[in-house]
Amino acid sequence: MSRPRTHTMSVVCCVRVAEDQDFERLKQLCDCHDGWSLAYNHPPTKVWTRPTKNSTFQMIKVCTVYTDIDANVLYDVLHDPHYRQMWDKHMIKSVDVGYLNPNNDVSYYAIACPAPLKNRDFVLQRSWLDTGRELYVLNHSVFHHQYPPRKGFVRGLSHLTGYLIRPLPSGGCSFSYVSHCDPRGKLPPWLVNKLTHVLAPKMVKTLHKACMQYLTWKPRNNPNYKPWIYPEQISIPRIAFSQCTKSPADDVVEMLDESDIDEKALEQLNHSHF
């Protein structure tokens, strides 16, 4: 395997409160299929890919329908930090760093990757919105001075990751997921296909199972605790923008060459956040 090298991040990871246009952009990405290529089609789940200018990794879009899951339950599962450790089997560590306002926070997330891949971690700003007809969650990578790049992890980069949930008149909900995420490092080309044809559909099944189990888990585990809905329950510190200002040295991250990994070594690869 090649020796680790360094690479300077060219993407501006700015911390700012999400605006209506940010959620509208996610909605357009979910609903418009122009420029996308259909890569997986097993109704009700479809997966599309689209090339991007600033990354070798394609943007991925997943759309499905959950006929037996309430939209608000799915929204809660995506938010609930205590429940995530129950269903996200690849999570090593998750920290709610602080909040910008009642609908924007910053978190640290470390994920275990199956050997011989190196583990990844992310610092993310998450934003959410409930319009009454649609529920949005989106995130992108940011910097926070308490969570600089760590040894033993490759710092991943989320250009945009978003979820759009819509209640259906007949019950259940539709679910759309868009991800433009760069796990960094030099990875083999076949991994993109693995992500599209295996991991994306698995994510749909994983979320479905998590939602069904949440209905029995949440009533026994602080059932009224939902700070993503009730801001008076927020207990994490407020973040100052000065805490998210990085120096040029912070932009230098380790880039490992993992391009010689054998596909057979990753046969047990399950859902991840790449």
User: Could you spell the SSE succession in H and E letters?
Assistant: EHEEEHHEEEEEEEHE
Number of helices: 4
- Percentage beta strand: 25-35%
- The rounded Rg comes to 18 Å
The largest sheet, given as strand count, sense and whether it forms a barrel, is: 10 strands, mixed
Let me know the average pLDDT: 85
Overall 3D shape:
globular
Q: Distance N terminus to C terminus? A: 22 Å
Find the structural class using helix and strand composition: alpha+beta
**Tally of extended strands?**
12
Describe the structure.
- It is a single chain.
- The protein is of the alpha+beta class and 274 residues long.
- 20% of the residues lie in helices and 32% in strands.
- The protein has four helices and twelve strands.
- The chain has helices at residues 20-31, 71-79, 81-87, 190-217; strands at 5-8, 37-42, 45-50, 59-66, 91-101, 104-111, 120-130, 135-141, 154-155, 157-167, 173-182, 252-255.
- Residues 1-12 and 268-274 have low confidence and may be disordered.
- The two termini are 22 Å apart.
